[in-house]
Amino acid sequence: MSDINIVEAPPGIEGSGFFATSLDKVIGLARSHSLWPLPFATSCCGIEFMATMGSHYDFGRFGSERLSFSPRQADLLMVMGTIAKKMSPVLKQVYLQMAEPRWVMAVGACASSGGIFDTYSVLQGIDEIIPVDVYVPGCPPRPEAILDGFGKIQELVRNESSRRRNSEQYKEMLASYGIL
């Protein structure tokens, strides 16, 4: 809550205080605590994510207990596990079906870099086909690492300007992936 400053009201104005902040910060704060993740789990990292959703780690305390299995209702794509090259068009289509603003988290070594599978059939990191915002290391990563990665996504969402998605740099980055 350090992003919002409470300022005393000037003399003559009723009330004990009012909020003085920019609209971007309020929107970022609201978005960061209401992310709807779409888990795209293909192997052992998905099992670790299931443990993260359990009562011991309680992923829901961050405002994301509502998993969305429809890309049109999700704003955070969590890719977990090995992605075969045959699966890459499906992953890209899922990404494109998500509405802006959307964020991506690559969970585990396989989604981040192909992991131990340096073969012709495995995608060597999902950043070859879609932009990634946060990488979570590990094979498989512990639930604490997934929670840490989610915290970094929340920080990114909270501090992102609403104008970033309309900038030329962002459009060039999407064009480099063949998305625009």
UniProtKB/TrEMBL annotation:
Binding site for [4Fe-4S] cluster: C44, C45, C110, C139
UniProt-listed SUPFAM superfamilies: HydA/Nqo6-like (SSF56770)
Reactions accelerated catalytically: a quinone + NADH + 5 H(+)(in) = a quinol + NAD(+) + 4 H(+)(out)
Coiled coil: none
Gene3D superfamilies noted in UniProt: 3.40.50.12280
Single GO term (MF): quinone binding
Any single GO CC term annotated in Swiss-Prot or TrEMBL for this entry: respiratory chain complex I
Enzyme nomenclature, EC number: 7.1.1.-
Cofactor binding, per record: Binds 1 [4Fe-4S] cluster.
Record keywords: 4Fe-4S, Cell inner membrane, Cell membrane, Iron, Iron-sulfur, Membrane, Metal-binding, NAD, Quinone, Translocase, Transport
Reported cofactor(s): [4Fe-4S] cluster
Predominant location category: membrane
EC class of the enzyme, as a word: translocase
Localization: Cell inner membrane
Membrane-topology annotation of the record: Peripheral membrane protein
One example of a Gene Ontology biological process annotation: aerobic respiration
InterPro entries the UniProt entry points to: NADH_UbQ_OxRdtase-like_20kDa, NADH_UQ_OxRdtase_20Kd_su
Extent of the signal sequence: none
Domain NADH:ubiquinone oxidoreductase-like 20kDa subunit residues, every copy: 44-151
Function: NDH-1 shuttles electrons from NADH, via FMN and iron-sulfur (Fe-S) centers, to quinones in the respiratory chain. The immediate electron acceptor for the enzyme in this species is believed to be a menaquinone. Couples the redox reaction to proton translocation (for every two electrons transferred, four hydrogen ions are translocated across the cytoplasmic membrane), and thus conserves the redox energy in a proton gradient.
Subunit structure as annotated in this protein's UniProt entry: NDH-1 is composed of 14 different subunits. Subunits NuoB, C, D, E, F, and G constitute the peripheral sector of the complex.
Assigned protein family: Belongs to the complex I 20 kDa subunit family.
Protein name: NADH-quinone oxidoreductase subunit B
Organism: Pedobacter heparinus (strain ATCC 13125 / DSM 2366 / CIP 104194 / JCM 7457 / NBRC 12017 / NCIMB 9290 / NRRL B-14731 / HIM 762-3)
